[in-house]
Structures
1.
Amino acid sequence: MAWTESFHCDVCNKAKDEATEDWWLAWTETVSGAPGDAEQRAVKLTPWNNFLAHSAEMRHLCGARCVHTMLDRWMMAKS
Ligand SMILES: [Zn+2]
């Protein structure tokens, strides 16, 4: 059974269709091994993958421009 998946860019809300390339997935992780108890957060980025895109923590990004915007927001938000 074919079902239509619908993803939207988490920055600009553009809808993804099958023809669009150059979408990206981003998520945050905590890096272990940092000195002290500080939570060392990191952003990970990977080219679009339909399987991974279903993961709850994934951010969907429609291209380099929105990746940059997401990174800018994340960098400004970190404390
Ligand atoms: Zn976008």
Note: The first helix runs from residue 64 to 77.
2.
Amino acid sequence: MRDGYSRRQLVKDLPQAVAIVEEEMRQWPENHPVSVYPSVQRMVVDQLGTLMSGTSPKEHVDDILTFIHALEMVYMARLYPRFMAHTPKVRRARRRVEALFERVLAAHEPALHEGESNLSDILMGMRRSAPDFITDKNLFVDSVGPFLAGSDTSSSATSFMLYSLLKHPDVLERVREEADRLFADGTPTAADINNMPVTMPVTHRAGQETLRLHPIVPVMVRTVANSFEFAGYWIPAGTSVWVAMAVSHHLPELYPDPERFDIDRFLPERREYGQLGAYAPFGFGPHSCLGQGAAQVQMALITATILHRVEIVLDPPDYRMKLDSIPVPTPNRSFKIRLTRWRQKGE
Ligand code: HEM
């Protein structure tokens, strides 16, 4: 599924990806506070659904989020009892997500488009060639995979990036200059987005530093296959272990003044993140994040589109981020911005 989740899926239709952001921004009333996270979440889910499954999930975004939240809390985080996955609200949301899935299936029959395949094409190709390997139930679960894996993560990371920039106006202005260059000829090109460290170095470093300071997935959960000893402790096979890989993001011996947002840590001459085990926002090993390229494109593209098109301020100006921590750290709804004006062409 690597190709279905890759950055290519977003980069192949940048005008569409940008249009989704602009459409959501048009809902922001001028000079009124807007809660950032839910708005960014609608952008992220619409981009992932439209570009990875080929069907806009626009009218179903709330249902998708209700359904995914129940799955995460009951089956992944195991913080809610099982019946919470079957309340009338969740059952209604699930039925609507299933209806969306039927539309995705219909849009992909009968032919696979050679060379242009998105995640749904790939899944359905696998279903045809190996029906025992991928059952109808798997096909449904895997088809909602981008929402499951992407809706909280990419949205939180992009919201944290906006917050960090609003708190550091000097960096924000440098990111805006890059955004203006990116949009100088209309829409960003694939070459620009595929080469961000060169074409948008400040934006790229701001994204990396955001992921260091605000790790979205703080632990990886694993079951021990072979017993081993670690730091004087015997860990028997079958034990459930949490690998808290994000702890190192905040260690002063790796990152001097670790709570400071400092994008220059990611300059080649500093490379603080390059020390052994210092930086793992997307996990590590064979199950590291399949969507990491796509997520970084979303963070940069959504931020660049917003800063290029509008002026925004924090509301209130001295706001300090509050977190909701379950199942992953997400910005609280109290994180709000105010659109002060639309920028004119050529500004
Ligand atoms: C900034 C945003 C994101 C972060 C920080 C993030 C982080 C992670 C981490 C740490 C893992 C490994 C979990 C583990 O090993 O237990 C993971 C797995 C995964 N992520 Fe992401 N993710 C992000 C966005 C996305 C997006 C947008 C998608 C898809 C559209 C995605 C798809 C996946 C998938 C499919 C896996 C499972 C890979 C496997 O098990 O082989 N992620 N992600």
Note: The CA atoms of residues 94 and 315 lie 35 Å apart.
3.
Amino acid sequence: MPCAPTAFLPVKRPRIAIIVAIGPERVIGQGNQLPWKLPRDMKFFRRATLGHTIVMGRKTFESLGCKALPRRRNIVITRNPLAQWKGVDVAHSLDEAIRLAGDEKRIFVIGGGEIYRAALPIADDVYITEIGDQNPNFNLFKAFPGDTFFPALNAEHWRLDRPPKRKNIASDRVPPIRPPKLKRAGLYFQIFRYKRRRSVAGNKPS
Ligand SMILES: NC(=O)c1ccc[n+]([C@@H]2O[C@H](COP(=O)([O-])OP(=O)(O)OC[C@H]3O[C@@H](n4cnc5c(N)ncnc54)[C@H](OP(=O)(O)O)[C@@H]3O)[C@@H](O)[C@H]2O)c1
């Protein structure tokens, strides 16, 4: 006898936006922390997500000191059926997190690596802050080593929404980036916004 599903993803679901900061080799994390502190990108992240629902993996939540980010609905994804934390809603899968968001217009998936990998095939928008260095011979990965990475975007599925503006990190006001040894003249960041390409039939490719 066929097994009747107990739940379906809502037909009308929120727009799913991924927001991420990546370094060389698409590194995003090291030792369950960001490899850098970039205050201007933090400001961008705050502005973009304020007032919205944010969805994150349990490890990213731990990296935030197990505290909800204020003025946003926080949903934390874990496989632990008993987990509860103050100030956050708990989901046991990405689908459940999306269902919890209900009829909201847009949600932000804020990491980390495992949750980004799960969300990318169904995301509508991707905001990527990319940290780079103008000197192609400088080994930026040595400066920002990491153990967690963001998946590569497939150009067939994503189009650049608007050209990024490159911002020089060294010209930032104090403290531009930590660790301070990385206050290099050639260091920059730029924010890319990608939108998913729709197929002719209007279906989404995975
Ligand atoms: N650069 C950036 O923009 C950025 C943004 C966010 C995070 N990060 C970095 O990313 C790193 C953390 O990423 P991560 O990949 O290690 O961990 P993560 O994605 O934050 O969380 C992984 C956890 O989420 C839960 N989970 C994942 N898939 C699930 C599923 N299908 N169903 C139910 N629960 C699921 C599991 O929690 P349980 O083990 O509790 O079951 C899993 O251990 C840190 O270094 C952090 O600083 C970087």
Note: The helical segments are 39-49, 58-63, 94-100, 113-119, 140-143.
